[in-house]
Amino acid sequence: MNRALAIRGANNPLGLFKRAAAKTTPARLYSSQHKKTYYKDPDPQIGDYPNLEQRFAEERSPYVKWWDRQMRRNFGEPIQEQDEILNMWAPTQYWSPGWKQVGKMWAGAILIIGSVYYFIAKTRPEAPYMRAYYPNGLKDELGGLPTRTLAASIEEASK
Q1: Contacts for 19 with CB less than 8 Å, ≥ 6 apart
Q2: Which of 53, 35, 57 is nearest to 44 (CA)?
Q3: Tens-digit pLDDT profile for residues 42-90
Q4: Where does residue 80 fall: left (phi above 0), alpha (psi -120 to 50 degrees), or beta otherwise?
Q5: Could you tell me the pLDDT band of residue 8, with boundaries at 50, 70 and 90?
Q6: How many angstroms separate the CA atoms of 80 and 77, rounded?
Q7: Confidence check: pLDDT of 13 > 80
Q8: Residue 70: how many CB atoms within 10 A of its CB?
Q9: Would you say the C-alpha torsion 14, 19, 22, 24 has a positive or negative sign?
């Protein structure tokens, strides 16, 4: 019997080579070293059924001539293992921008509002009237006593 077949045989159900485990792995992996990829389970437990990429049906082009337009699939096309999660009846997947882009949007909004405020403040015309000027304040104009202080007014009002 071939040694490679014996290693992959019934004693090793996952089909892994013992030599692959002997390879050295880097001590530390950084997330920047890997590109974002969809996870594909190496042992999907679905037998000879094709291990399809997990992709939402909503991401498929609506302009393609589909046999089933609503579900965006063709006749005879294999469905995914988790079709109830990935089909058109699944919750809508919303795109959201990253924090860097959100920060740029906030900075732009603040800049626009600030520049409009500055423009209005600098181009506002002067008042078409002259402000009233009272040399002694409103005491004489309203008939108050010029010698009375605030404390004296409060004392007289409390009597």
Answers
A1: none
A2: 53
A3: 666 777 777 788 889 888 999 999 999 999 999 999 988 888 889 988 8
A4: beta
A5: very low
A6: 9
A7: no
A8: 10
A9: negative
pTM higher than the cut 0.70: no
Q: What are phi and psi of 33, to 5 degrees?
A: -80, -15
Q: How many CA atoms lie within 13 A of 48 on its CB side?
A: 0
Eight-state DSSP code of residue 126 = P
d(CA 56, CA 79): 11
Distances (CA, A) of 38 to 81, 91, 114: 14, 19, 44
Q: Any bridge partners for residue 73, and if so which?
A: 68
Q: Are 75 and 107 in contact (CB under 8 A)?
A: no
Matching residue, tokens 């402000």: 131
Q: At CA 50, angle to CA 45 and CA 52, rounded to 5?
A: 100
Residue type, 9: G
Hunting for tokens 């469905």 — which residue is that? 79
Contacts of 50 (CB under 8 A, 6+ apart): 78
